[in-house]
Automatic annotation (TrEMBL):
Catalytic center residues: H104 (tele-amp-histidine intermediate)
Protein name: HIT domain-containing protein
PROSITE patterns: HIT_2
Top-level division of the source organism's lineage: Bacteria
Protein source organism: Cryobacterium melibiosiphilum
Motif (Histidine triad motif): 102-106
Length: 125
């Protein structure tokens, strides 16, 4: 149980190493892992270790420095894994496709310069 009394999110269980994930980066406050159902050749999820923020709007209001750190980590992951150009998506609300209510960003990209991201990587998120 988390302090709020809610069940831990699937991402908290990844952070606690209760379920496996392919972790690609980690800091004291953030963790990044490969999405289990990738929508692009590179699809990495970055989430906060603190589960208190349900979405990016709450994170921006509550801890803008952590949001800036998250964006910086996205840039770093994209520099390592993509052609340097990437899409950064925060689904916000169920109707927008959010399924895990523990703030996270999707980093979507292609490893080569010749590949472009199709609209599929937006629509199915
Ligand atoms: P969203 O729909 O924006 O809330 O994003 C949640 C994302 O988490 C989806 O893209 C899922 O594929 C991904 N996901 C769910 N469970 C896991 C898991 N165990 N390991 C990695 N990614 C996951």
């Amino acid at each position: 149980m988390s302090s709020s009394g809610a069940e831990p999110s699937i991402f908290s269980r990844i952070i606690d190493r209760q379920i496996p994930a392919t972790i690609v980066a980690e800091t004291d406050r953030l963790i990044a892992f490969e999405d289990i159902a990738p929508k692009a050749p590179v699809h990495v999820v970055i989430t906060t270790k603190d589960p208190q923020y349900r979405n990016v709007v709450e994170l921006a209001a509550g801890d803008p420095a952590l949001l800036a750190d998250l964006v910086g980590l996205a840039r770093q992951i994209a520099a390592e894994r993509t052609n340097g150009q990437f899409r950064l998506v925060f689904n916000t609300g169920e109707a927008a496709g959010q399924t895990v209510f523990h703030v996270h960003a999707h980093v979507l990209g292609s490893p080569t310069a010749s590949e472009t991201l199709g609209e599929d990587s937006l629509g199915a998120l």
